[in-house]
Design a protein that fits this description.
mainly alpha, two-stranded antiparallel sheet, 9 helices, 2 strands
């Protein structure tokens, strides 16, 4: 994956052009981040109202938790961008290492807290008794990937500080596509489908709400690991 970093100090380009070049991948990326749980909600919709409610009931608290980590990422974006602008590359690399350590120190406790409150969160949000078990199961599985989601958000913020907004966008496109495919295979049961006049059988695990959570968690973990590896192999 080869991308060209955009220099904010390049005087040959107008400030407006620089802002647009940096911002459009961020805009798309933020849409993709917001789509992950919305896709889960949409794809379990065919299972009935209870499944839909079980996935969507905890969406607001999870977004609030993501907001805390994103705020942390904004701080690292500013610090890294300042170091890069001053051509203090070793300082910027040190900030990358500090960011990874910080997000793990914060993300792991957040994940454990979400795991402990997996049943309480939908209860506080007014979940009906008939969706409480499914909602708690969804939250419990998602909690296992919270540290990785935090890592992905902070690394994405760091890439912005280096002037590279396209790499996180590409990885988020991959994560969303993987989540859709995973949902399709894990939510529904094995069934025949017809495509372009041809009928064939598609395997499905039939896990329902749990399948959506597993697919989301697995794709988030893989996306974070790809970002992490690319961070250390890229110059």
């Amino acid at each position: 994956m080869k991308t060209k970093n955009i220099s904010v100090t390049d005087s040959s380009r107008s400030p407006l052009a620089t802002i647009l070049l940096l911002s459009w991948p961020v805009f798309i990326e933020q849409i993709l981040v917001a789509l992950v749980q919305s896709v889960d909600t949409a794809m379990v919709g065919s299972l009935g109202a209870n499944a839909t409610a079980a996935v969507s009931i905890s969406q607001a608290p999870m977004m609030m938790i993501n907001g805390v980590i994103m705020a942390l990422g904004v701080g690292f974006t500013a610090l890294v961008a300042r170091s890069v602008g001053a051509k203090e590359i070793e300082r910027a690399r040190e900030l990358v290492r500090q960011a990874i350590a910080t997000v793990l120190l914060i993300g792991l406790p957040i994940g454990l807290l979400c795991l402990a409150l997996a049943r309480k969160i939908p209860l506080w949000m007014g979940a009906a008794p008939d969706i409480l078990d499914a909602a708690a199961q969804y939250n419990r599985i998602i909690a296992y990937c919270m540290a990785f989601r935090g890592l992905s958000m902070v690394l994405t913020a760091i890439y912005r500080g280096f002037g590279d907004t396209k790499t996180p966008m590409y990885i988020n496109i991959f994560v969303n596509l993987l989540n859709v495919v995973g949902n399709y295979l894990l939510i529904y049961e094995t069934r025949p489908i017809t495509l372009f006049g041809n009928s064939f059988t598609v395997w499905g695990a039939g896990l329902g709400v749990a399948g959506a959570a597993i697919s989301t968690s697995a794709s988030a973990i893989l996306g974070a690991l790809i970002l992490l590896v690319y961070t250390f192999v890229h110059k």
